[in-house]
Each structure stands twice: as C-alpha cells, then as structure tokens.
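Archive maintenance. Older records in this collection stored only the sequence; we are now back-filling the structure field for every entry so that each record is complete. The fields below show one back-filled record exactly as it appears after the update. Entries are processed alphabetically, and Aromatic ring-hydroxylating dioxygenase subunit alpha is next in the queue.

ARCHIVE ENTRY
Title: Aromatic ring-hydroxylating dioxygenase subunit alpha
Organism field: Rhizobium ruizarguesonis
Length field: 281
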Amino acid sequence: MTVQAMIDEWYPVGLFSQLDSAGRKTALMGEPIEVARDGDGNAKVTGGDGRVLPVRVRYGHVWSSLGEPKKELFPIPEADQPGRRFVDVGVVRVRCSPLRAVENFLDIAHFPFVHTDILGAEPHTEVQNYKVEIREEEDEVWATQVKFYQPQAAKSASGGITTEYMYRVPAPTCSVLYKTCPPRPSEWDVITLFVQPLAEDLCDVWPWMALFDDETAMTDLIHFQQTIFLQDRSILENQIPRLLPLDPGMEIPTRADLTSIAYRRWLKRHNYTYGAQLVAQ
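Back-filled structure field:
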C-alpha cells in the first residue's frame, strides 16, 4: 500500500561519496531506481520508467523522492557547525518495516538487554520519566529529558555515565538523536537514522553522525555504530507483526513507550502508512 503522503517525502538513497558514473541500482517504495553521478559530477536519480527524480545532497547522503515533496529536506543545524566530525556509517539492510526501524531507534528500554555493557546494563533498567510532545510549528515528534545510565555511551567515553538524550522525528522514516557529548559536556553529539524504504517490510538503514571527537579513528567510530545497529537488526527481523501497528489496541504500551505512542499517533495523523498495519489481523 503506497499512499501519496509518503510518496511526496524525501528519502536517503545512497552515500554521495560512493557514487560514480556507473551508478548504483536500488529501490524506493517498491520502484526500481538508479543513483549515479552525471557528467558534471552531480547526483542524479532515475526512476524505473526513466524519469528523472528530485535530488538533494545533504548530510553525506543523496536524497530523492518518487513524488513532489511539499517542503525542503529537514534541517540539522549541527551539520554546519565548525569542529564536528561527520561520520558516514554506511548501510545496514533490515527485513522489517521502515517504520519499525525508526520506532526501535526511539526505544530506550531495550538498551540494557540488547546493547548490554555498551548502552545499558542490569540492574540499571528503569526508564525515568521524560517529556514527549508533537511540536506543531515544526510538525515533529520530540522526546526530551531522557536520562539513562550507560557503561559506554560513546566511543569517546571512558567509564559509565548517566547520559541525557533528546529524540527528534522530523520525517516518517528519519530520526535525529542528540545525546551527551563526553569530551564536551556543553554540546550534544548527533546521531541520525536515515531509513530508505525498499518495500513495506524491507529497508536500508543509513546511520550518520556529527560528533566532537578528535581522538577516535574513523574506522573505530564507524565500527562502534555498526555494532550497535547490528545488535538491533536481530530484534527487528523477529518482530511480529512485521509492519508497524497503528491501532492503539494492537500492542500494549508501557510508560517507557511514550515516544513510540506519539510517533504512531503522528504517523496516523499524516496518513504515513507505508510500512504500517492499520487494523488487527
């Protein structure tokens, strides 16, 4: 089921640094597409029927759409902040709904159990009260004042710390995480999840980071984040149902799931239902 609301959104379709004139074949919401550089070195995306699709290059990635986006790609101000290291983490293919991938990224309750001794550890399993809202002016889901004890909050961290998080959902298949920056407590590390919906139950996940970390080797930064997401993949690929339920009665939420509840409500409000299950089956 493809709905116009999601067709008209921007989606990541590849890393700009990896493009060449030969191109890369992939898919977007069930349609074959090709991502390449044209004769001038600019990114070009072509649909399966040969039509040229809209293109933006931002945050190290090429973005495109099968429709006509009604607004520009969402801003991440930290992407223009001097002194940050920008990390293209690569891609992980996951057999799950693209909406499931985003919701999992928003879930902190699983840290001690899935990312044991990295992003969480027993007995520190309680999710403290935090604030969730749908910001009407920006039309985004935000979770703030999220705090969690983490044995290794980042590659730059030495020893366990209580980490503060802010989550932001600016688009149906993208999320931006702001978290405590160990080397610079006055700043936030930025970790994003850009999800490319290949089909309703299959997606490519493109994490990207904007960090203050002048010490860690780039390969170590990439490996750390890939390790985290590969741990998530096994959970995501075994979730039932595969599509994300939007009916509140289909799954029983807990107090820790406030962000997920707001995200699902926001999706339903905008008819962002590609990759969603609307009624119980």
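Update note: Residues 112-121 have pLDDT under 50 and may be disordered. The two ends are 16 Å apart (CA to CA).
Entry marked complete.
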